[in-house]
Design brief:
Elements lengths: L3 H4 L1 E8 L13 E8 L3 E11 L4 E10 L8 H5 L2 E8 L2 E7 L1 E2 L8 E9 L10 E8 L5 E10 L6 E5 L2 H7 L4 H14 L22 E3 L4 E5 L5 E5 L3 E3 L6 E3 L4 E9 L3 E9 L2 E11 L6 E2 L4 E5 L10 E7 L2 E3 L15
Parallel strand pairs: 3-10, 11-13
Antiparallel strand pairs: 1-2, 2-3, 3-4, 4-8, 5-6, 5-9, 7-8, 9-10, 12-15, 13-14, 15-22, 16-21, 17-18, 17-20, 18-19, 19-21, 19-22, 22-23
Bound molecules: zinc ion (ZN).
Zinc ion binds next to loops.
GO molecular function: metalloendopeptidase activity
Keywords: Signal
Protein name: M23 family metallopeptidase
């Protein structure tokens, strides 16, 4: 295994503020840019070198062929592969594959992107890093590591008293509910490398800023039978009246649009390989499975179907199966230049 440092110059060009304003919460994500100069290619690297627990780390790599004499074909260039792994100290916590961004690639330029979810339980005292491994047109593998700083963040803890009906839903172990959970997990586990719909900032799914629950609230559900269970709240709840417009947070493909026992009328949209947004408890839907949507398209009306203690919209984002903070994606998470 060779490190780029063996034959390349590594220099950090600039560290710029990545996030100006968050609607709620703390700005954790800063972007860093770096350049590797190889013998016949260069890599321009953008990534967020800091994040909060429950955010994600995104890395964008732009490979450019710089030498005329070693020119390879488009197909060979396109066979470039890369992956990244996330480490706490020496312990590998997760990994993710890079995919190609079609619009920003040409004969001599290839742009790849990958994101890795961060658990909301990460300890800001620990040392974290991502290790990137890549192989340019079938050549030998290179690897390098980037430090990632995890900022401290506190999450809400709350107890929810469920009534008879919501207790029944939450403790339902019927084959139909189990089938629905497995079906959703199968969808979220799908990483289609061709599914690149939007790499610019997401938008909130409603105009409302009235949030009644937050991402990664630590919840205790108290049942009517005296028992209880604990869980994380995987999304953001907006307290909006029944019948309010619910909008797609980004362009994508509708991969689920149906009524489910626990989440009521629900929509799931695929935006990037392994990246999905979810919308729950609606009163009616305006899209069907297989539809493609643009950012801001009407996908349904809010309601209180499924496990709900009142009308609200539950908005959730999943990356490689893990629930991540939707607020992270309201920023330029994929480092798309905005000219
Ligand atoms: Zn919710």
């Amino acid at each position: 295994m060779n490190k780029p440092g063996d034959n390349m110059r590594f220099c950090i060009k600039k560290a710029a503020l990545f996030v100006a304003v968050f609607i709620a919460g703390i700005a954790c994500a800063f972007s860093k840019e770096a350049v590797f100069e190889g013998e016949d290619y260069s890599i321009e690297l953008s990534y967020n070198d800091s994040a909060c627990p429950g955010d994600a780390v995104f890395v964008r790599m732009k490979f450019t062929q710089t030498s005329r004499k070693n020119k390879v074909s488009r197909t060979e260039f396109g066979s470039t592969e890369a992956s990244m792994e996330f480490f706490a100290g020496e312990n590998k916590l997760s990994q993710s594959q890079f995919y190609q961004l079609p619009k920003s690639s040409s004969r001599t330029v290839l742009t790849m992107l990958s994101g890795i979810p961060l658990s909301s339980w990460l300890d800001s005292e620990e040392k974290y890093s991502v290790k990137i491994t890549y192989s340019l047109y079938g050549q030998k593998k290179y690897e390098f590591s980037l430090p990632v700083k995890i900022e401290p963040k506190t999450f809400v803890s709350e107890t929810l008293d469920l009534d008879e009906n919501n207790t029944m839903i939450k403790t339902d172990t019927s084959p139909e509910r189990m089938r629905q959970i497995a079906e959703l997990n199968d969808i979220l586990a799908t990483t289609d490398m061709q599914s690149v719909y939007q790499t610019t900032s997401f938008a909130a799914p409603t105009d409302s800023t009235r949030r009644t629950s937050f991402f990664a609230d630590r919840r205790v559900y108290a049942y009517t039978n005296g028992k209880s269970s604990t869980s994380l709240h995987n999304g953001i709840d907006y307290g909006i009246p029944e019948g309010t417009n619910v909008l797609s947070c980004a362009a994508g493909k509708v991969v689920l649009a149906k009524s489910r026992i626990s989440t009521g009328w629900s929509v799931v949209i695929e935006h990037l390989p392994g990246l999905y947004s979810l919308y729950y408890h609606m009163s009616s839907l305006n899209v069907k499975e297989g539809d493609t949507v643009k950012q801001g398209d009407l996908i349904g009306l809010s309601g209180s179907t499924g496990l709900a203690t009142g009308p609200h919209l539950h908005w959730e984002v999943r990356l490689n199966m893990a629930a991540v903070s939707p607020d992270f994606f309201l920023n330029n998470f994929a480092f798309e230049s905005l000219q």
